[in-house]
Amino acid sequence: MRYLKKISYIVLFIFIFSSCYNKAPIERTSIISGVGHDLKSNKKLSSTFEFTVFKGQNIIDKMIVTTEGTSIFDMYNKRLLITKRKHLPGTIRLLLISENRAKYGISDIIDAFLRDQERNLNTTVAVSKQSTENILKMNPKDSNTMSEEIEDLIKSSFEANFTQNDVTIKDLFNMYYQEGRHIMIPYVEKFKDTIKLGGIAVFKDDKMIFVIPEEEAKYVNILRNDKAQGFLSFTSETSKSFDIACQSRRKIKVDYDDENIVYNINILIYASIKEANIDNSLELSKEKITELEEKYSKEISKKLQEISDKYKNNYQFDAFDIQKYAIAILGKDKQKYVEDNFKNSKINVQAKIKILSSGRIIR
Amino acid sequence: MFKYNNQITKNQYMFIIQNSMIGVGILSLASEVCKEAQQSGWISTFLGGFYPIFVVTLTTIIFKNMNFNEFFEINRRIYGKFLAYIFTIFFFINFTFFTSFVLSGFTNVLTFSTTKFLSPYVIIVLTSVLIYFTINQGLTNIGRLSELLFYLTILLLIIPIYFINKGNSTNLLPIISNTNSIIKAIPKTFFSYSGVEISLFIIPFVTDTKNVLASGIKGSLITIILYSVTVILTISYCGYVLTSKLQYPLLYLVSAADLPILSNFEPLFIFLWGNKIFQTLAVGCFGMSYTLSFIIKNSYNRCCLFTCLLIIFTSSILIPEHNRSMVIDIVMPYLVYTIIIYTLLTFILSYLKRGEIFEKN
């Protein structure tokens, strides 16, 4: 009994002194779903916030607020003059950066998101072709807010085109701070009255330098991403086609002889045939499958080699996330050497398709 | 008012040794070692583990030589009355620093992460009240608490293991690039390993002293492995540049998990780790009260009250994190090196005097 009394005193004491004060009540808070960073003319920053508005029961609307300023929290100050509710930064689902802003530099955004403990590390990041206000202002088709829609778009894209799945802000920090890596994030653009994924935005340090177009993005993705999923289709002149669903594995081997660095990218593609409209009397015996594997492995290797040579020669830039392997072998202090010598290095791509399943039809 | 009992079992000794080291260090260790040793920071962490093993081993041998008498008794016989008094004051100061560092660090982490709405002083006062009630019952109570909380350590390890295949091995390679920097980073780990000095005071209370050395080493090894694994996982996930930039890399790591139901592991981790901190603080405060009762020749229970009041005051001074890390950088090396020298010296002297027959009093 004596102990019980003592314990109850302690518990009471704790409850009295640790109540949650100084927190906004739920009626006065609003859920921010996305934030867009943009650059106006004369180097003035602008940011757009999209947040949900609850109007009565089951009616959820959205609003956006755009402010201009000289720094991120200067804009925050001005935003509070317009908005009527307290906004919590922890709920941000999407960070959208316009192309202009990305080219201007995003080091301040990286710092703000990394420094503030309240911010969510699983925010999805994307670069937009149009201004962020334009995109967030649009009417969402199948979500409550445009930010959620863009996030869903990016997350659902993992299943095709071998799209990268390191799209959150913590991956962006990793790409920014780890040696020999570059920031590469999805690039979205307006498409009719909605948005679509239009390629990959590539950064050098904190500035965007170019966009990998949609047609080439698939092949760059195969070269860049490990354990990515997608479909490969091979068509012939006679309008016959052969489609496979793939899961790719990537292995990098770096050889170094005093002069040059040689990167060997070995790609193993586990595939299952989804469509094989190539020959009417086709029977998928072991020999035939081996023949198909060899034929299409050669074809895809050639295509990937072309792409890798193109990016190496045209941009002198590592878009395949392979420099880190060279740095891991040569030492962390050789980062500059590896980056400077990328244009002289050699990239060998070797892809191998392994068909695991032929589906329901065997002949 | 309170009766206290100091007897502990061998297993409880192991758990106390193991738990007394896990403080704020586990959160910030990776940042400190990566600053010097870059991607090889985990090697420094592992090598820094020689400090707890050194202290635990020598302590056990000293006490074996001196027939497991109490700390003051041994000091009096080896060094004489005056020096024994001086050493006790030194250890009191050491534990005061240790406890204030842990308590202020705990407060800083809480106000930084989960309980932003609380004033740091409220946390300090509440924690001190809890510690007062814990240590008042004596070492037996702390031993039981350690036994219970040991299993939380396993959970603390399981959460970072979520990231075991999320990292990239290129971040850890080359394994050794500069031997000098690895050695230079070892003293940075000593703050994380400090607290193990408590073994000097609690060994005489172990009931069965047969394999007490093995227990001590086992306890130290668990903590060394826990530290090394968390540092490896942090570096392999974040890379050493980001790790050395962050204040609490492990906290960053656990909050980066993307989970279906929980928003992230951070509150869960803080909850588990906070429980460990209560125990670490209780051990530190026990050391303080125990030495203080000898210094001011007063009863142990009254000294518990004095020490709790003292740490409220000292940890309030260290409140912003930069204050605390500045004081740690200045004070910690002196404390650690003095303890190493003291242990070594006592070891040699006790070895010389081991022939004399001491009765256990």
What does the model show?
The complex is a heterodimer of chains A (363) and B (361). In chain A, 34% of the residues lie in helices and 34% in strands. Chain A has 363 residues and is an alpha/beta fold. Chain B is an all-alpha fold and 361 residues long. Chain B is 73% helix and 0% strand. In chain B, helix 3 packs across helix 9, helix 5 crosses helix 6 and helix 7 runs antiparallel to helix 16. At the A-B interface, helix 1, helix 7 and helix 10 of A face helix 7 and helix 13 of B.
What is this entry, summarized?
The complex is a heterodimer of chains A (363) and B (361). With 363 residues, chain A is α/β, with parallel strands linked by helices.
**How much strand content do the residues of chain B show?**
under 5%
Please give the radius of gyration of chain A in angstroms. 26 Å
Low-confidence stretches of chain A: none
Strand content of chain A: 25-35%
Average pLDDT over all residues of chain B: 85
Poorly predicted runs of 5 or more residues of chain B = none
The structural class of chain A is: alpha/beta
Mean pLDDT of chain A: 85
Number of helical segments of chain B?
A: 17
Structural class of chain B: mainly alpha
Number of domains of chain B: 1
| Helix residue percentage of chain A | 25-40%
The major pleated sheet of chain B works out as: none
Radius of gyration of chain B: 20 Å
Elements of chain A, N to C (H/E): HEEEHEEHHEHHHEEEHEEEHHHE
CATH class of chain B: Mainly Alpha
- Overall shape of chain B: globular
**Through-space gap between termini of chain A:** 82 Å
What would you call the shape of chain A?
globular
Please estimate the helix content of chain B: over 70%
Total beta strands of chain B: 0
